[in-house]
Amino acid sequence: MQAKEAAALASELYQRHMAERAELDIIRLYWKNRQRLPAVIPATAPPEIKEMARTARVPLIEIVVESLAQALIVDGYRAKASEPDEAAGVEPGDSVTVPVWDAWQANRMDSRQMGLHRAAVAYGTAYMVVLPGDPYPVMRPVSPRRLTAVYGEDPDWPRYVLEKLPNGTWRLYDDQAVHELVSADDGRFEVLSVAGHGAGRTPVVRYKDAEDLDEADEPEAETQGGFRLSQCRITAGQVAPLMTLQDQINITSFILKGAEWYAGFRQRWIVGWSPSGSDELMHAAASQVWAFPEQPDDVRLGEFSQTDLSGYLESRERALKYAATLSQTPVHELIGELVNMASDALVAAEAGRERKAAERKLSLGEAHEQAFELVGVYMGIPIPSDAQVVWRDTSARSFAATVDALGKIAQMLGVPVEELWERIPGVTQQDVRRWKAARAQGDALANLTALLERQATTIDGESVNGGAAGERVTGSGLILPAGVEA
User: What is the number of H-type helices and E-type strands within the chain?
Assistant: First the structure.
């Protein structure tokens, strides 16, 4: 692509990027609980009203996003070994780490994956840019607020991508090169440099919260009196579907705060007497005992009862429970009611979120495998067809129950215990690798120790403790392992 063509394409993608950014900014404000104040509050409202509206925001959406994102943690990338590795104690068919996992570690993706997953579940889409690097390829998660991708017939790999970098410059990616650009004041772009990447495809991977076959053909929002009822065209992700319900909860909380401020306490009234000035009014307001020496029969005292706030509180709690149902978020995470729940009850309460997380692991896992495919191209490492991402188990099952179940699987079904190690909660792939190496070393030492013990107990060329298969005792009483000649 020539420099003039790249600049013209960047200008075209820039217009699309700004349109997407306007919608995504709304989602960002709702996600971070900084959305605009409810339109029911007039612009001429007193300052205390606006302050109450600001403090009445309930971070519902942020809890929903965090609850789901924290259940999505990648712990490894594994495949079945095709060749034995005696040093590591690996036999054909054993589950082993694919070498491209080293690039994941070098890019510190153990922590950066959380930002990638949060953006994917919040906005509905996130991206990973994978470029050549030394000694490992560079893997960089990017928010959709900073990147726009255009897809053609291939839904997996984009045709063109425009990204805004933190330093204010831009990059245009295609299937051949990376174009560094700078934007001019009139909205046009100028190409600074071009570098090939060698991936053979546009090196950007899209992460989607959920698959939606109608995403590219979304109907227009309903209008009424010229007003678009939907304030955001984006429907994907965890934020957009909850924005209306978030507004309802915020308005209920605002009314609750107003009732607390103006009528949440007892107010006294006086008929037949008026203060002569502000000092007398303040003295009367602070007095516990009032006295009216002149015409006491014409003065009446009373008080208004305080407003009952239970209705507002119940309304907000019901709305939060409804939000928990819609978002499949455990209700105790939204309303804070978790009192002596048994482990089985806790698992049942989080079953909906576990199903939701399992679905996201399918779509996000495929995207991770695409990213590793690019890494393999750069490193010259073929990716096995059976390679797959390993997700950490974050379920609410008790540790003892999980270990007991794994023990029964090994004992009753004959599954090798090494294959179950990675299913232990909290165990990383590095732990499994270290355990297997220690197990292989321990087996070698155990065999040597057994051989020495049998050597020490030979009598007249006969081994008292018997021998292993294939072992041979020489005339001098020396035990030789199978296949070894004296």
Answer: 13, 19
Distance of CA 312 to the CA centre of its chain: 33
For residue 115, pLDDT beyond 70: yes
Q: Where is 35: in which H helix or E strand?
A: none
Q: Are 7 and 189 in contact (CB under 8 A)?
A: yes
Q: Give the residue from 141, 111, 163 showing the smallest Cα distance to 207.
A: 141
pTM beyond cutoff 0.90? no
Q: Which amino acid is at 2?
A: Q
Considering only CA atoms, which of 127, 81, 75 is closest in space to residue 101?
Answer: 75
- The C-alpha R_g of the chain, in whole angstroms, comes to 34
- Stretch 265-284: mean pLDDT, rounded? 67
Answer whether 69's CB lies under 8 Å from 239's CB.
no
**Is-contact 326 245, C-beta < 8 A?**
yes
SS3 assignment, position 343: helix
For the chain, what percent of residues have pLDDT higher than 70? 74
Residue 461 in this model has a pLDDT that exceeds 50: no
Place of tokens 């008929």: 271
**Residue 290: pLDDT above 90?**
no
